[in-house]
Amino acid sequence: MLDTEFFRRWLSAAAAAVDREADRLTELDSAIGDADHGTNLRRGFAAVTAALEAEGPATPGAVLVLAGGRLISSVGGASGPLYGTLLRSTGKSLGPADEVSPEQFAGALREGVAAVSRLGGAVPGDKTMLDALEPAAAALAKDPEGFASARSAAADGALATVPLRARKGRASYLGERSIGHQDPGATSSALLVAALAEAAVREAS
Amino acid sequence: MSGGTAAGGRTARVGVVLVSHSARVAESVAELASELAGGGAQGAPVAAAGGGPDGGTGTSAELIAAAARSVDAGAGVAVLADLGSAVLTVKALLAEGGELPPGTRLVDAPFVEGAVAAVVTASAGGDLDAVAAAAGEAYGYRKE
Fold first, then answer.
1. What average pLDDT does this structure show over A15-44?
2. Most buried by CB count within 10 Å: which residue of A48, A52, A101, A121?
3. Contact with chain B for residue A43, Cβ under 8 A
4. What residues in chain B have per-residue pLDDT under 70?
């Protein structure tokens, strides 16, 4: 079972990864976006860490809903409402349970990823965060405890955005010139999924 | 315009919120729209929510919520947004519920032309549907 502590570990690992990789995310974003992805996510996850510390949410769902709300209000770029919706929608699907099964989490994550797709109107192949999130959610749907497979699926998905032409967001204005660059949103999504695998490893050890 | 907001309650006007990545764009468009609507105390309430949480370029959910509350007179609030995160942040806030006043709606419209149409219509006493329709129709104004 995945308890509240597991989800706090996930978000704390995500915050550490975003902080560590912020410069790389901003660099990727300077090629095809507006060069603020790393800075924005660093600010957002710092706010998430502070809120989790201050409010101590008691259930897995409450952890994710609180974190999602903080991302929406503090990131300042499109990744705020998108990741905020991912976490909030996933958290709501988990309901008020004190702990959830990996199967329940895999189902809730699918809901969260679908909500991101609805909000932004993007589908896999558009060179967005969905190119990493969808394969990760699909891997967990197949094997709910396969967090390591989800991590590889998300990392591969992010790499596979390099040859794609962006069809959403600021990068889409670049047309052909967006080809050849890895999407910063898919890259940060892969970091979030890797953080999930990290939280799972620490639980097992 | 399509009727008053309530029987005998024509004083409550639809509020308009302008969300831009740039604080100066949001404020300038708010000023322009109010002036073109005739301005003054008779005009509909208009508020700008521009720029990000750090004061730079971006979108601030807190500024949007504060702006919507400041123009809410009970007749609804029409929100116009410029691009990307401005649009997505408003949608995410509306999806959650409780973060924006009841009767707040994201209006699909071009930012400058739509803002002018929205504020003129709201100032003339149009209800939220009329304001949203007028703003959306601004997509149809051809310039050549």
1. 95
2. A48
3. yes
4. 1-10, 40
Decide: A69 and A88 in contact? Cβ < 8 Å: yes
B59 and A119 within 8 Å at the Cβ level: the answer is no
Which residue on chain B is closest to A76 by alpha carbon?
A: B59
Give B-chain residues touching A80 at CB under 8 angstroms. Answer: 59, 61, 85, 88-89, 92
Q: Are the CB atoms for B14 and B115 separated by under 8 Å?
A: no
**CA–CA distance, A116 with A119 (Å, rounded to integer):** 5
A154, A194 Cβ separation under 8 angstroms = yes
Cα Rg of chain B, angstroms:
14
Query: Which pair of tokens denotes residue A194?
Result: 């890797």
Q: What is the per-residue pLDDT for B144?
A: 87
Quote the CA–CA distance of A187 and A173 in Å, as a whole number: 20
Q: Is domain B15-139 in CATH 3.40.50.510, yes or no?
A: yes
The sign one gets for the Cα dihedral A9, A15, A20, A24 is positive
Pick the CATH number of A2-204 from 3.90.1150.10, 1.25.40.340, 3.40.109.30, 3.40.50.720: 1.25.40.340
Q: How far is A165 from chain B (nearest CA, A)?
A: 18
Q: What is the pLDDT of residues B120-134, one digit of tens each?
A: 999 999 999 999 999
Mention every residue, 6+ apart, whose C-beta is less than 8 A from residue B9: none
Strands (E) located in A58-192: 99-100
